[in-house]
Amino acid sequence: MSASSSAEIGASLRHEDYAGVVSRLAALAIDVVVLTIAAAAGAGLVLGGAEVVVGDTPGWLVAVTSFVLALLPTLYFSLGWWIVGQTAGGLALGIAVRRVGGRPLHFPRALVRAILGLAFPVVWLIGLALAFVDQRRRGLLDVITGTEVVYLPERGAQQ
Amino acid sequence: MIRALRLPLGLAILLAERVRADFGADHPPERAPEAPPVAALEGAPVGGSVAILESGPIAALERAPVAALDDQPVVEPEGGPVAALEGGPAGPQEIGVAAAYAVGLADIALSTSARIARSAVAAAQKRGRVGAGLLQTVLGQPELARVTAPARRATAAAADWSAATVARGRAVAAEARTEAVTFLRLESANGLDWVRGEVMPVMIDDLVADPKVRQLAMEQAQGAVNDVALEVRRRSARADTSLEAGVRKLLGRDRRELAP
Fold it and tell me: Per the domain annotation, does A34 fall within a domain?
């Protein structure tokens, strides 16, 4: 989505155009499932492949794999929000993360948002309650990072 | 010859039945009568002209026990012996087939005539009861009976011939129909086996390999997924609104009081 279209979205949004708690939690659940499957598949492929090929699993490989797996959620969320404003869950639910005003996130802001959310998941989830009383349905994490989550227009409505 | 023609005749009969059933004839389609064996039809009982129309000599033939009919003297039509229908010399067979067609037409005409005559007789029966009694008295005189005997015999013979011809035609038609049905069933079974064994696998392979079909299947699947996603989004958006309204109601806050 271009910056101009994002700005248009941000300029004309009503309260109902911001994503609510249910949609965001559903998207997060889908993301968790995707991450779990991806991590399990990746780890199984690497470690199992090493077991088959080498006959043993080297310690350094386990360390590297663990490190990558630990970084995977952060990379997944930050890259998704940075590149397209969406993760797989957001794509399924039709919601996207934007800066306040409708412009797309830069990588540092996306990375900070991902790190904060993953480092303090309880705060992330409880902070979502703020969306019930906020005009733009922002959670605590959105307020801190200056972002908002919006419904994307349906493809049929755009046409 | 007759066997060669029997199948087309039966197919024509089936076609005619189908047309009659599909387009609705003036009268309901008659089922092919359970024709008695052709040999049993010879020597049909003879009735007077009105009696033929009233009771139907054909029906009488169909109801008559075979053994009783066998004992009757044979009155053969001009077309030749009835046995020729089952495989006699070539000449009579051809005449027999032609007679069968003619009998079909005669049967229709006779049935129609019978209905008309029954109606006429029923209408005239009431008025003519007195006159009929008088006429019966006159005709009952021995001298008059002797004079009219040749005419009555000729009438009876003609009626007998007609009845036997019609019955034979029906028997031939029934046999031809049965043969045609058997032929069609056999051919359709063979055709289905051929289609299943030879045509269907090739068609399925062609369809699977056809890029257009693949693209169509992909588009269908993609469309289904999009529909599901769209529905999920709409439901989640509705749930957002509902949940938010419930929470605001619990908190006792109006939407206008929302934080900016």
Answer: yes
